[in-house]
Amino acid sequence: MKHLCFLALVCIVSLWSANANAQDNVNPADMTQAEEFVSSLPPACSDSTISTGADGTVIIFVACKKEGQSTHSMIEIKNGIVKKIR
Fold it and tell me: What does the alpha-carbon distance between residue 86 and residue 21 come to, in Å, rounded to a whole number?
């Protein structure tokens, strides 16, 4: 049981430090651009979120719902360049 608790703690610390490291790699202008984009979305897209990748890529998850229909998209930005849109 002690080993399982120790392993869980190691996993949590590793995930936390990986996320902190990704935050250090994020271009502040990319984050600002993502925040402005998400805040400009219509109310139907209020579930949209912003995350970061391990390499510092800013990832925008766009989720919109209206009249029983929904759509989901993902946009990746790195150093001012849109890398991917899905």
Answer: 25
CA distance 9 to 63: 33
Instruction: Give the residue carrying structure tokens 């400009």.
Output: 40
E strand spans, the chain = 49-52, 58-66, 69-78, 81-85
Q: In this structure, are residues 81 and 55 in contact, taking their beta carbons and an 8 Å threshold?
A: no
Neighbours of 20 (CB within 10 A): 9
The residue assigned the tokens 């402005």 is 36
pLDDT in tens, the chain (86 residues): 444 334 444 444 444 444 444 457 999 999 999 999 999 999 999 999 999 999 999 999 999 999 989 999 999 999 999 999 99
